[in-house]
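Person: Show me a sequence?

Helper:
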Amino acid sequence: MKRKLYALITLVCILAGLVHIPSAVAFAGEDKVVSGLSLSATVKHIDDSLIPVKGVIIAPNGANVRKTADVSGELVHAVPKDREVTARDFSYDTNGMRWYLISYTYGDKPYSGYVREDLISLEAELTYKKVNIHEATSESSAVVIECEDDMPVTVTGSIVVDKCQMWYSILVPATQTTAEVTGYVSSEYVDISMEGNDFEAYLTLQQFPESYKAQLRLLHEEYPQWIFKGLHIGIDFEKVLTSEKKVGRSLIPSSSLNSWKSFEKGAYNWDTNKYVGFDGSSWVAADESIVAYYLDPRNFLTSTHIFQFELLSYSVQQNESGVETILAPTFMKNTNSVSYKENGADITTTYSDLFMKAAMVSGVSAYHLASRVRQEQGANGTSLAFGTVSGYKGYYNFFNVKAVNTSTATAQENGAKYAATTNATYYLPWTDPYLAILGGATLIGEGYIKRGQNTLYLQKWDVVDGGNGYYSHQYMTNITAPTSESSSMKKAYTDEMLQMGLIFSIPIYDNMRDEACPKPTSTGNNNNWLDSISVDNYIVSPTFDMYTLTYEVIVDDKFDYTVNILTQTKDPNATVAGGGDVALEDGDNVISLVVSAPSGKTRTYTLNIYKEPGGGGGGSGGEIIYPPAPTFSSSTYVFDEYVSGITPGTAVDEFLSNIAIENGSLALFNKDSAPKSEGVLATGDILCIYTSDEELYLKFTVLIYGDVNGDGRVAAVDLLIGQRHILNYAALEGVYLEAADMNHDGEIKAVDLLLGQRFILSVSEINQQKPVDPGYVHTPINTPKPIIVPTPTPTPTPTPEITPTPVVTPTPEATPTPEVTPTPEVTPTPEVTPSVTVTPTVTVTPTVTPAVTPSDTNETE
């Protein structure tokens, strides 16, 4: 049995041990201060750090290998004399005899078990690595002292380094040969167990937020030997949620509540009015709200579901009885035997026996392996568990490795196809149940456990960087799997086993919400999309598209202070707040249209309405003009999600010169969003197209087939990365996954590596033209904003000065004087009417209406 002493946390003893008084601790780091008690602990080795030792069987007649370290243990195999083996651990039987846990290969099959120490010769003594205490929080810093396993120390504080790795500051007591020293050690090398009030100090030491502590206190009361370690992820919770909620990355059963199902773009087929199926029609994309619930560790700090945080390395404390408890409700129960061939002979045993053997060889928890297969195969098993897939009979795949639906084959066919491949590391091909269980276990151990994804939770949520980034290297897409498998894990433990010092690594994110994310319970769906937006008498820009959430409207009537906003929801049971008659102020008005789905989930559309200022003056406001969108073309390159057709080594200026653009502009950035104006194109660079008003219109990721690492070249390192993907060492994703598919068949295989090799050797070229997807539509990120061109009031023509003609009354003709007759009286000559006075000339000054100067504010911001 490995020597692990879980020391009790004790108060520092003062006054010759008569009085126990808390010892203050304040340990600052990265703007965090941890205060609490000094905690007693022991330094220890880590299971994976055991030194494997080569050896050979020396018994003249060979040696019996048994399941347990005892002569009465069940026989696993009889290994012949001179067989080379590897010793990884040791234990003692009741008589004090040492037994070595060994692994070896015989007849191309791996075996493991215990053999007595007098039957084996080792090259060196099997010991544990010593634990180095450093002068700083880094493995590369100077070593202050080497500590033996189980060395008692005092932990005085903690610090999170590089956002995720916790280190302890410790005090190593003086011995007969060494003085008291202080230093730092990774928390992984320290065992602390908790009793009494010191548990509070331990929670503080682990830097658990307050929102975790109440549930952890309850668990500690029920299981005081359990150890809770804070796994500091170092990433904001919301950032992780944004990545994990992407359509297709997180799935739920199609039978789930409608409020669990996503209505985001790509998750729902509007033509068929059905959810899009992923990995078969029985799985659909999970909505953000249910993803948040399962992602939040605080929702699973119960005595059952906490087992999704249990460390999954192999443990000698696990036994076949516990495995049988997990398998009992399935086709793998012990009453159903299983057979395989060994050196031509038929071997019949139980499934629980196979899982124990696979656990010992792979270094993975036997309980985890059994729970995982139970999750993948269900109670009755699939054709992959029985080797009956049509066209691939005799090939087994218990862990459903590569069993996903594609356009050319079913999940069962693809899983069997993988089982028929050859890879000695994973014991492929899997031609019997034992090889399939062992190979899958080894793949999990190499691909996940030893990369830091050593809990059920981390195998779903890839939030630790095992050398391949985040989010892509996830064993399952089913977000409920860690929770359901945790129930199986707990059932494997007896009441006595549950009282042991089980270790749970519990994730803690930066900037978590104040309270745990709630679980959606509504039976309504999440359809909160609009089908249309319109404004009476005015044009909405851009043209409505349900996935575009922001629109512009210009109200050019200076005296129109109210507009009528009309909306139509995609779901008749959804509601909209914010529409109808809306009063406007002069200038900018931001109108929020909040759509509530039947489930209550909301989505907000925004109308930015600019109203011409009111008041006196002439003019009708002018004409609304919609600037043309950018147009671009190239006889060299292909544009869809990516821009391809680029020859490796193409210079930036050459690349840009081969793209013609009108009504816009181009710019290139590297994968880190820094401007790139020189050098060569590389996979992962970003081409951005801007509108004439400098808004981002479209962007394309640069794709160069063969340039898998994004340095702009096709070289041996790219082939190595592709090979690691094929072997499941480091999964590629996104444009880098596409770049590795050099023959464009949708899979990364040896033929792709061959094409890359032939290119490097100048034997042949790689076809850089990505096959065109005829259904791909470029969706603009922004469109050119409409502008209003004011119609100026015409300048009136001045009225010319007019000199009025005076009205003259004509002088009447004079009556001639008649001849005088002497007798009659002479008629007197009448008075002449005087001439009319002439009115002076009047100059008329016209009133001129000045020309209207267009206001700058007529243009939309």
About this structure: The chain has a mean pLDDT of 82. The first strand starts at residue 13 and ends at 14.
